[in-house]
Design goal:
alpha+beta; five-stranded antiparallel β-sheet; 401 residues; five-stranded mixed β-sheet
């Protein structure tokens, strides 16, 4: 059996082995495993601002983006002696040693295992119970145009500023926009999520035609402000991560004046390094500007005093005090038919003019963070064309012989 091809890459003063460097991970542009590793070496300084000291879930695309990833929390048993990890405890009492990508060598090591995008915790390993980042995830519902996401992001900026916080926007690299907010690590996950929910409801109140906080998809319209990304154990792709989209888009940091006109397809594995060289990193100073959640928590208290309770949690979390029933609204016979104010978990089904039938239900597993299904269908068709031509040519030669 032939030995597997490999190359050695120098990263952070170490030689890191990269196996199968010529393996194609992105069939449409033809980019390989080596291309991904070299990208991360180029952008390492900017990428590590958002990864250093954070437990990171490994999302391994061992055969490229056309196959579903393997989600892996624990690092393998045999790891280099220099590899740094963080010990994460689960409610079951079990623990896991997760990757803490603290330098460029860690990035290359992870790429060697098939990692394309990095998904870190919002807390650092010295204190995993107190996040230092609040995350705003803007996710468009089906049929919503990209401009609605950009406009919603601007509303988010103003809500944060009005409550003493500075947001750092970035494209998600998929369908949406993320806004990262560095905060003082004084509050636990419950309080950070509570603040995020209050912020999301305020965005919805200010722009009800654009934004929604409805957890059930049959009730949503416009852009979903996903407050649950701030629940414990939830992760999102980090800034400067390559995303597993057919054109290898990057979750790229933006200046706020870029948001109204940004186009995510312009920010790719092959364009972001030059952008960093020319414009610098808009999020380079994020660690210098931690803010307080006190104003958002005051807003949460006002909402609660006016009758707004908790909103639904992700399905694998225990039922929370004050949480609405985990029943699809259209199947809830006891659900009232009147509507409350914007920001309330709304009864009575979807808003007027918005059709139902979109809710997949708790525990469903749609493709996440990988762009639109149609893009993958096109990439798959493009991949099949050369094989079909070869098959046709072989058949022609057979007939002639």
């Amino acid at each position: 059996m032939a030995k597997r091809e490999y190359t050695m890459l120098e990263a952070a003063g170490r030689e890191v082995r990269l196996s199968s460097p010529a393996k194609v991970y992105f069939p449409k542009p033809g980019w390989t495993k080596l291309d991904i590793a070299e990208y991360y070496l180029t952008v390492a300084d900017a990428a590590l601002v958002h990864l250093r000291e954070r437990p990171t879930v490994m999302k391994r695309f061992v055969n490229g983006i056309m196959e579903e990833p393997i989600w892996q929390k624990r690092v393998p048993k045999n790891i280099p002696d220099w590899l740094q990890t963080a010990t994460v405890a689960f409610p079951s009492g079990r623990t896991a040693e997760e990757l803490a990508a603290n330098d460029a060598a860690h990035l290359v090591w992870a790429v060697n295992l098939g990692v394309i995008d990095f998904n870190p915790w919002p807390a650092r390993r010295a204190d995993l119970d107190h996040p230092d980042e609040l995350r705003v995830d803007l996710d468009p519902t089906p049929g919503i145009k990209w401009d609605a996401v950009r406009r919603t992001a601007i509303v988010v900026r103003h809500v944060l500023a009005d409550h003493g916080l500075e947001g750092y926007p970035k494209t998600s690299g998929s369908k949406g926009i993320h806004v990262n907010v560095r905060i003082e690590p004084r509050w636990d996950f419950l309080e950070v999520r509570r603040a995020a929910l209050a912020m999301a409801r305020e965005v919805e109140r200010r722009a009800p035609e654009l934004a929604t906080t409805k957890w059930w998809k049959e009730e949503r319209h416009g852009v979903f402000v996903d407050y649950n990304q701030n629940a414990r154990d939830r992760t999102v792709a980090s800034c400067y991560s390559v995303r597993p989209t057919p054109d290898a888009r990057v979750s790229c940091a933006l200046r706020w004046d870029e948001v109204p006109n940004v186009e995510p397809e312009d920010l790719r594995l092959d364009t972001v390094p030059d952008r960093l060289d020319e414009l610098g990193d808009p999020a380079a100073d994020i660690d210098e500007r931690p803010g307080s959640l006190e104003a958002l928590l005051d807003l949460a208290r006002r909402d609660e005093e006016e009758g707004l309770g908790d909103a639904p949690w992700p399905p694998h979390f225990p039922k929370q005090k004050g949480e609405p029933k985990r029943v699809q609204p259209s199947r809830d016979r006891d659900r009232p038919t009147h509507r409350g104010r914007a920001g309330d978990p709304q009864p009575g089904g979807p808003p007027p003019g918005v059709g139902g039938g979109l809710q997949r239900g708790f525990g469903s597993k749609p493709r996440t963070g990988q762009g639109y299904d149609q893009e993958f269908k096109e990439a798959s068709a493009a991949k099949k064309k050369p094989a079909a031509r070869k098959k046709k040519a072989a058949a022609t030669r057979k007939r002639k012989s």
